[in-house]
Amino acid sequence: MSPFAGFPSGKVHLTPIPAPFFSELLPEIDDLGELKLTLYALWFLDRQEGNIRYVTYGDFASDSRLTASLGATRAAALAALADGLEKVVQRGTLLKAQLVESELSSAIYFLNSPRGRAALKALQQKAWTPGEQGHVDVTLEAERPNIFRLYEENIGPLTPLIAESLEEAEREFPPEWIDEAFQIAVEYNVRRWRYIDKILRSWKEEGRHGSDRRDSKEDRRRYYEGEFADFIEH
Is pLDDT above 60 for 22? Predict the structure, then answer.
């Protein structure tokens, strides 16, 4: 088992967990699979959008990191998934609707909350059908470090002024651009936000992808010569 590296610094997404989970559910849950699926559902539903939020059997089954934690083989994982979901429903944590009778793959689940109960009732009354509202696909794949974490890990402590600049950059530039710009700054040991920001803005003005990019050697040289030379300590 690999040790946990610890929660990152900077801004991270927080998943709200209702207090009754700790006071009423946690003391009663004695099955690891049920506990994992309960927490996964809370996490998944928080990342959905709109008033009607649900998680399908397919959402559970298609998340490779989740299923890998449930069983050593695919068959064992799906068996544990079915068993765990049955326990979650029996306990009343999730409410289940099955669109096709006797087909587990058609099941959808709502949190047993006022909003979840209302959504289930509306589904039963055919007031809406799954797919009419946006259903966001999310998985447990490791989330890309956000720009605040990248800054603190590679440059230094955040200040309010820098944080404001980082927020603006995160809105303006694609995450992969930000990742690569930080990598270049680390490679040339120019740990300054102004340098990273200049790289990003040069890509925006001159192009970064495909035919817009110079060959690798020439492209890298420009980060310590010419317009970027003032940032380099010789």
Answer: yes
Task: Give the orientation angle of helix 32-46 with respect to helix 74-91, to 10 degrees.
Answer: 80
pTM of full prediction above 0.70:
no
Full set of structural domains in the chain with CATH: 19-124 (1.10.10), 147-231 (1.10.10)
Distance in angstroms (rounded) separating the CA atoms of residues 64 and 139: 8
Dihedral sign computed on CA atoms, order 28, 30, 31, 36: positive
Nearest to 198 by CA among 98, 190, 93, 234: 190
**Which among 74, 78, 131 has a CA at the least distance from the CA of 108?**
131
Those residues whose C-beta lies under 8 Å from the C-beta of residue 148, and which sit 6 or more positions away, are: 9, 10, 11, 158, 163, 166
Please say whether the beta carbons of 95 and 121 come within 8 A. no
Q: Cα–Cα distance between 177 and 200 in angstroms, integer?
A: 7
Contact 130, 54 (CB under 8 A): yes
